[in-house]
Amino acid sequence: MSLAGIAASDLMRRNRLRTALTLGGVAFGVLAFILIQTVISAWEIGVTTAAKDRTVTRHKVTFVMSLPKRYVEEIRRTPGVKQATWSTWFGGKNPLQEREFFMAIGVEPESWLDVYDEVGVAPEERSAWIADRQGALVGDVLAKKFGWKKGDTVKLTSNIFPGEWEYRIHAIYQPLRKSADRSMFVFDWDYLNQSVPERQREQVGWITSRVKTGTDPAALSKALDAKFEENEVQTLSQDEASFQRSFLGMMSAILGAMNVVSLVILGIMALILGNTVAMGVRERLREYAVLRAIGFRSSHVTRLVLGEAAALGAAGGLLGLAIAVPIVGGLGKFLEENMAAYFSVFRLDPGTAGLALAIAVGLGAAAGLIPARGASRLPVVEALRRVA
Amino acid sequence: MSEPIVRLRGVRKTFWRDREPVPVLDGLDLDVPEGSFEALMGPSGSGKTTLLNLIAGLDRPTEGSIEVAGQPIHQLPEGALARWRSETIGFVFQSYNLLPVLTAQQNVELPLLLRRLPRAERRKRAETALRIVGLEDRTQHFPRQLSGGQEQRVTIARAIVNDPKILVADEPTGNLDKGSTKDVLDLLARLNKELGKTILMVTHDPHAAERATIIRKLDKGQLA
Ligand SMILES: Nc1ncnc2c1ncn2[C@@H]1O[C@H](COP(=O)(O)OP(=O)(O)OP(=O)(O)O)[C@@H](O)[C@H]1O
Ligand SMILES: [Mg+2]
Predict the structure, then answer these.
(1) Which of A6, A380, A388 has the CB atom closest to B94's CB atom?
(2) Domain that holds residue B114
(3) In angstroms, rounded to a whole number, what is the distance separating the alpha carbons of residues A381 and A383?
(4) More exposed terminus of chain B, fewer Cβ within 10 Å: N or C?
């Protein structure tokens, strides 16, 4: 046995219910703190992983309205543009599972794969997809969700384009960057263009450009919009990083509020710990006095109280981590697969876990400070007299 | 008789309550011969506990000198005094002496934690002490699993585990029934006789006092 042994016996035997409730309180505090911090950092990661060299150009009024396809050629000719491609929103649904939302787009396959280089396709699949006008390229998560395999023929309906549309799945892509949306359904724009009425042809939803190194995407966006200013259809261009930043800007008030909430949670944790430690110490004043009578010093008592308080915080913190790891893991898998636009990386950062644990231990020790001071300063004879 | 093991000269102790002095001990002289078993009696509030605390180095006199086992303890700083207590004095209080979360054996080991002793050695000494008080079959019991008399015997085992010269006992049988009282007094008498411990015991019970070799009475701040 040792001082630590005494502290451990106190924690485990004194008042099990109180210890358990306190541990639960601290564990939930740690869990809440970790969840909030993980959400915050997941959002911030969105900005850092956004493609820094891409600009998206859409109709000035709304992205629901389309652009003339000839704009693509004009953009490709603009200095600073390395490659440009286009996409048209198909509004696709799987008639067998109408409620599942996913992004179905018609694109020009080769340039689209150049620009969206986070989409990873095996070379044979890539050529098979490009060769077949009715071919489809499907994200791995979407394929898994619908049980689709390479070689399947699938039907989609659209809330924009009437009728049933048939596709052959030639390729399933893997994400090459965390920010990739793994649930897209991508097919050849030509298939759509040939099938729609004459007046709807040669229209595209939006145009995405990759800029040359050394070109500022924000400046290019301005230049593109200026180029089309005098045309019948005007454009609005925005680079992906600014788009993410403006999204985060809107969220900054929420992020701030969440940070405040996590501080409040830490405050509550400190109070729970403080209450438990203070009660435990008050009940034990006579025991501490007996220990000091038989030769323990007031510094021993201080260490005993602080050690016990810190151990309580640590145990609660570890319990909280043990709960948080599977929860963040499960939630993260779901969010990364289904809401990659907002939570491309939703993981328990070891730094956050370490911080939460350190805070729990620190708050425990802090909660023990005042009771420890009181217990170690009380004159022995007075403490013995109190309960004798 | 040899040199006294406890020597008090002109000891005064005054407490302060609401700025009013409460004189308790008033210029006390006392010599306790080594190896004696003393009973300290007196009315409630006469200062018996106060006197015992001074001798045991738990409190300091307002005035006067206290020499115990050759050490003028009224001059010792706090830390040295604590160390001195652990080596020289064994304590038995009226009740609640033990840590409820520790077993009898762990409670007895407590004073040994302050020394650099190997685990096995601590264990052996605790077992020996428990054997001396006749509780070798209760080593793994917690205090609430023991009777009041057994608890006091565990306390006595803890008091002797460091082999101190002096045992101080403040109403050690105050909460015990007749049978347990006899057990505890027998034990103290044996420790006095066989191990030569000097014992200072405060008691209200005249029968208990009779077991001592010397009975002293404290009244109005003076020893009679
Ligand atoms: N810390 C203190 N402050 C003020 N007065 C005190 C303090 N400690 C003791 N006294 C007073 O000193 C006197 C002696 O107390 P003490 O406890 O020594 O008496 P006692 O003889 O042990 O009594 P009892 O037989 O009831 O245990 C009492 O009047 C008590 O009120
Ligand atoms: Mg008393």
Answers:
(1) A388
(2) 4-223
(3) 5
(4) N
**A15: closest CA of chain B, how far (Å):** 10
pTM of the model: 0.75
The total of structural domains in chain B comes to 1
Which of B49, B170, B217 to mutate to test ligand 1, by most ligand atoms within 8 A of the CB atom? B49
Number of domains in chain A: 2
Q: Note the Cα A219 to chain centre separation in Å.
A: 29
Token duo for residue B83: 């160390």
Do residue A263 and residue A154 come from a single domain? no
Same structural domain, A286 and A195 = no
pLDDT by residue for chain A (388 residues), tens digit each?
788 888 888 888 888 899 999 999 999 999 999 999 998 888 777 666 666 789 999 898 887 889 999 999 999 999 999 999 999 999 899 999 888 888 899 999 999 999 999 899 999 999 999 999 999 999 998 999 899 999 999 999 998 999 999 999 999 999 988 778 888 999 999 999 999 998 889 999 999 999 998 888 889 999 999 999 999 899 999 887 776 676 667 677 888 888 899 889 989 988 999 999 999 999 999 999 999 999 999 999 999 999 999 999 999 999 999 999 999 999 988 887 777 666 777 888 899 999 999 999 999 999 999 999 999 988 999 888 876 4
Give the ipTM of the model, two decimals please: 0.94
Residue of B58, B101, B115, B141 to mutate when probing chain A, most A C-beta within 10 A: B101
Provide the shortest C-alpha distance from residue B101 to chain A (in Å). Answer: 6
**Is-contact B55 B218, C-beta < 8 A?**
no
Q: Token pair of B161, please?
A: 């585990």
Using the structure block, give the residue that is written with the tokens 């004095």: B89
CA angle A152, A157, A163 (to 5 degrees): 110
Q: What are phi and psi of A244, to 5 degrees?
A: -65, -40
The answer to whether the CB atoms of B82 and A297 lie below 8 A apart is: yes
- Nearest chain B Cα distance for residue A380, angstroms: 7
Q: Which of B82, B101, B102 sits opposite A295 (nearest CB)?
A: B82
- CA distances to A57, A210, A232, A237 from A226, in Å: 12, 18, 13, 10
Cα of B82 from ligand 2 centre, angstroms:
21
Phi and psi (nearest 5°) for A379? -60, 140
Give the chain B residue nearest A16 (alpha carbons).
B101
